[in-house]
Amino acid sequence: MLLFLFAAGGRLAGGAIFKILTKSSARLAVLGNSIGLGEATMIKVTRRTLLAGTSALAAAGLVPFRAFAAARTYHALLVACTDYPNLPKKNWLIGPKNDAGLVRDYLLGNTPAPVKFLAENVTLLAKDVEGADGPPTHAAIKAALADLAAKVQRDDFVYLHLSGHGAQQPAATKGDETDGLDEIFLPSDIDKWVNREQGVPNALVDNEIGTALDAIRDKGAFIWAVFDCCHSGTATRAAEVDDELERKVEFADLVGGDDAARAAAVKAYDGIASAAPRGFDEDGQRKPAFKLAPTGAEPTTKGRLVAFYAAQTVETTPEMPLPRGTADAPRFGLFTFTILSKLAENPNITYRQLGQAVLQQYSADGRTRPTPLFEGELDARVFGTDKTDAVMQWPIVVKDDKATIGAGLLHRLTPGSKLAILPSALSPLSEALGYLQVRSAKNLESRVQPVEFGGKPALKLADIPANAYARLAELAVDYKLVVARPAAAKGLEKEAALANSVLDDLAARENSGFHIALVEPGKSADLRLAVLRENAIAGAAEDATDAPALWFLPASGDMTLKDGSKPPLIVIHPDGREKLIDAAARNLTKIFRAIGLSRLAAASDYRPEEVDVEFRIKRLDSDALQPIEPSTVPRVSPDDQVHVLVRNGSTNLVDINVLYVGSDYSIQHFLAERLTEGAVLEEGLFKFTDTSFGMEQMIAVLTEAPPQSEKQDLSFLAQAGVVSVTRGLGQPSFSDMLADIGMAPATRSAMRLTDDKASKGAVMIFPMETVPRA
Questions:
Q1: Quick check: 533 and 549 in contact, CB under 8 A?
Q2: pLDDT of residue 306
Q3: What is the predicted pLDDT for the residue at 729?
Q4: Residues 6 or more apart in contact with residue 546 via CB below 8 angstroms
Q5: Is the Cβ–Cβ distance between 112 and 347 less than 8 Å?
Q6: Reported pTM
Q7: Which distant-in-sequence residues (6+ apart) come within 8 Å of 671 by Cβ?
Q8: Which contiguous run of DSSP H or E holds residue 166?
Q9: How many CB atoms lie within 10 A of CB 239?
Q10: pLDDT value at position 405?
Q11: Residue 135 has what pLDDT?
Q12: Dihedrals φ, ψ of 29, to 5°?
């Protein structure tokens, strides 16, 4: 929970800036005319992508970069570990081989020009993947890394992707790790842990990985390393998730020997693990698993490095069928799939922006865990591309009475998505010949068909001109909340039956203030319900009640009762059906609105240069204002403060609202201001209190204000938290989409991208974790 703070600050010094808004329509028109396009029209799929109606922007002024890119060689090493013959079958995985195949397909066919990965420079180590170069054994991985170190040249680019199991083991040398544990990646041929000196045979230890990457960087090559694995997990899963598999191996499963030796090894490991603060540095902030980024100055000739980690060292990361809701979807690592999805939407962003996009997508999906981490040269552009605006458009291929485009589920295209048919890549939307609708979609390809839309009749396939392009024509946000029913826990069958009966009634209600779809326990969902007794949950306090309760859990089904966190719950009384209905309805309404606000982060249409929004934290014991880096999840405690600095560099009026979504799904409104051209706003916003803890979200909503309009005030979205208790298609604006959250739309809200008169806007999510002060 938060307390409003009326302290206006002095001028804030420099720091990380969140840049969110757009060029005005007038300035876009000038830009378009300057390159012979006429009026340019905004088409943006995410909060960070302006689609300005032309690929000519990407080419303007890029001759030096393109020459440089043509001379550079792009290498990739993809490692996918699924089978572990020396581990129990329960530890085998499915998703890593799919991760590797998807990444290879993306690198070979979807990277932005002039970036080009050639098949002969992409090494794939995996089992049961067509075209793989061998199994992902320890020797094969080390040999591939050594081969890269031998052949890369200065300024080459190396992409490294490791999918599989991670783990921890007692450090071979005492004092070598601050927590006494080595983080390790598990190739397919690992064997059982022997002793502290030998560790897990054939495991890749963090120092070993760092040394191999240093050898590549010493040649002057740039490395981007992605680790879709985890090393440990401390959360309790209170609701089972059938289609999710955690990429973790318990230390007990890694230990060999007889029962006595195994018990002694596990006891020693547990003693080390419990003796040190795990997963956090000396300042209480998260630390990455392999700690690959340099901490001090390095030679200018050494190649730079960026590392993405799926989770902090005390969290697990899942694999699951993706995209969610797609029939017979294959399993992918959530981290891998989200990275590629965000990259497909906007391939010309920085690593920091990509990391922030991943965090925002996790928030929009209702995921409080895991917490991805990002380190290194984060302000460099992904794959070393130049700064350009991505245009969400693709050539239309008509063959054998079928039309396809080279984009699909990774680009957020789903059956029903609308695309404009344009004569060329340079055509503005006003020249649309007609529209296409996605009929079916794979990850990187969609089948499309002409459709009547936007006042234009459906074209015949034969009438689509050669070299025509399909450009995204509509933004849509699905607000429907998928809720997994509670399973019938042993001894609580009657309570679970009552809860499910209540859910049936609520799902059938009209004008309820929320829209839910119920699925069976364990199925893919945004929200999971469980019927449990608090005192039966691991980590419960000594005074925890034994009363049965209906618990409201995140998509992962995880529950944590440490650091003051506690999920919302409703105590179930067998004779209190009406009270349960009322309480559940209130909770679902609040959760629906909070999650809906997060989902709007995917529906902004502003360019990231015009308005700077900078949030800073003032710690209790410091006068300094610490910038919140957009690709991190800071930890804050009671009496820490949040300040904001906003600069409107556009020629438009811009309304800004700041809201805060608590771990209890409360929404608090802290700021509603209108900024004129060139205006600067500096304010202290609020300070944290000790009334709730957990993963929470600060949200900045920016809306372009039409002349003579009233200032947008989103205070109507404010709501108290969930407490523990004994439209037709049309052409709506961004403001209408915000209002839909409060009004509970039919399930979906859409905004036509050709609508220049309606207000445009962006929703930015900044997740953070509130914890008690030590």
A1: yes
A2: 95
A3: 32
A4: 533, 534, 535, 536
A5: yes
A6: 0.77
A7: 644, 656, 657, 658, 683, 685
A8: strand 165-170
A9: 26
A10: 97
A11: 98
A12: -60, -40
Tokens standing for residue 208: 């070993």
CA angle 93, 481, 508 (to 5 degrees): 125
DSSP string computed for 40-106: -----SSTT----S-SHHHHTT-HHHHHHHHHS-EEEEEEE----TTS-GGG--SHHHHHHHHHHHH
198: CB partners within 8 A, 6+ apart? none
Element (H, E) at 205: strand 204-205
Taking the C-alpha atoms of residue 106 and residue 207, their distance in angstroms, rounded to an integer, is 30
Tokens of 631: 């690709």
- The single-letter code of the amino acid at 261 is A
Q: pLDDT tens, 500-540?
A: 999 999 999 988 888 899 999 999 899 999 999 988 887 78
Kindly provide the residue ranges of all beta strands, DSSP E only, lying in 229-266, ordered along the sequence.
236-237, 245-246
Residues 6+ positions from 385 with CB-CB distance below 8 Å: 65, 69, 112, 115, 347, 348
Beta-strand pair 74-80/117-125: parallel
- The predicted pLDDT at position 753 comes to 58
All structural domains of the chain, each given as residue ranges with its CATH number in brackets, are: 2-39+604-712+759-770 (2.60.40.2550), 72-384 (3.40.50.1460), 397-467 (no CATH), 481-597 (no CATH)
Taking residue 433's Cβ as centre, other Cβ atoms within 10 Å add up to 16
Which pLDDT score, from 0 to 100, does residue 486 have? 96
pLDDT of 738: 61
Per the listing, tokens 């690929």 go with 55
In the chain, which residues have pLDDT < 70? 1-70, 173-179, 232-237, 275-297, 387-390, 475-476, 563-564, 601-609, 723-761
| Whole-number Å distance between alpha carbons of 283 and 149 | 35
Contact 412, 341 (CB under 8 A): yes
d(C-alpha 117, C-alpha 107), whole Å: 6
Integer-rounded Cα radius of gyration of the chain: 26
Q: What are phi and psi of 70, to 5 degrees?
A: -65, -30
> Phi/psi of residue 518, each to 5°?
-90, 135
Six token digits for residue 594: 């909070």
Q: Give the pLDDT of residue 29.
A: 28
In the block, residue with structure tokens 């207000």: 759
Q: In this structure, are residues 716 and 680 in contact, taking their beta carbons and an 8 Å threshold? A: no
